[in-house]
Design goal:
Layout lengths: L1 E2 L6 E2 L3 E5 L2 E5 L2 H8 L15 E3 L2 E3 L2 H6 L10
Antiparallel strand pairs: 1-2, 3-4, 5-6
Bound molecules: zinc ion (2 copies).
Length: 77
Amino acid sequence: MARCETCGNDYDKSFQVTMGGQAHTFDSFECAIHALAPTCEACGVRIAGHGLESAGKIYCCAHCAQAKGATSLRDRA
Ligand SMILES: [Zn+2]
Ligand SMILES: [Zn+2]
């Protein structure tokens, strides 16, 4: 049994996500996304899918990247 890092729930089907060499424990994907997913530079949405990266910034979609001036990106998901 392990306790979720986000909500503190003690759940027997919790799981671990390793990011940057550090293990994190969660009871649900929602909690994992809340804690670990980056947010779009343009619209602030949580990026749970592929996302797009340009010059160290991350965007949820090509539209947002273009809105912030990253013109050479296309959706690759
Ligand atoms: Zn949780
Ligand atoms: Zn966005």
